Amino acid sequence: MQLSKYIILLCLSLVFINCGETNASKQTGLTINTTVKSLILGDTLKLSINNPKKLDITNISYQLNGKAIENKAVLNDITLGEKVITATINYEDQTETITKSIKVFNNIIPSYYTYEVVNTYPHDITSYTQGLEFHNGELYESTGQRGESKLRKVNFETGEVLKNVNLDNQYFGEGLTVLNEKIYQLTWQAKRGFVYDANTLEKLSSFNYGTSKEGWGICNDGSTLYKSDGTEKIWLLNPENLTEESHLEVYTEKGKIPSLNELEWIDGKIFANIYQRNGVVIVNPKTGGVEGVIDFKPLKKLVTQHKELDVLNGIAYHPERKTIFVTGKNWDKLFEVTIKK
Fold it and tell me: Which of 38, 59, 168, 288 has a 20 to 30 A CA-CA distance from 320?
């Protein structure tokens, strides 16, 4: 079976998109012309101006998402997804600014990964798991549902809850991550996150979201926080002031991957759970390109089947054991797995 068919089986809902229309000047008819309809990372972007009225153009300057580029530019050191080309055109002592949207896709086909279960542990069947992360050998968990949302420190081998904090009833808990002895916990639609002391679980502060409208998953690379919002976007947050400084868009060679949920940083990559798909994509944090796909769907059959049972959600990497722990919403088991291509 071809690799692309594996991705289809995972139902990752790839969206096929071509270049956008140029915003032409109504007065002059000037438009931006690109030589190809779709672009992948590493392609050469060639730009020119359609000038139907034969205006006497004296200068043209181009920008790609606000950064200056030449009319012939290799798309190497950029992130994937939707981009805006801006052309500033000088003619006959006048200036016109026109734009055109394009999309840049990844230049590799994702590798397909399999997994092996090496251990199975008990998990609280009432926990609607949203975030999962190890810190100093202990497992931290964030759970959802209004009136039931919690932040917990858990003994992963026994399932014993070591510390517990209940969120106020208006909050729907989402992902969490631990950085510099602080826990960052998201909520879903309240546009607010919370910061706790990692040892005591004492709440230290709260923060509001920026452009991202919702909170889904969060992870960190030791210096930057990465936040998903249920779309194809992953936002980069400054941990000092928690502002959204930029974002990635997660794409394969064929289209975007929407519904990004729980995130985990593992060996320099972002592992992102796809909501309601029981699959995980491995994302290059420099470009947003999908480099691998893991199908965890069979795990759902290994847990107790009940009416509240929901999808896979919760990825935690154990750096000392070099294994990945996964569970789901209202699953009664926590699986320790290894993966390989």
Answer: 288
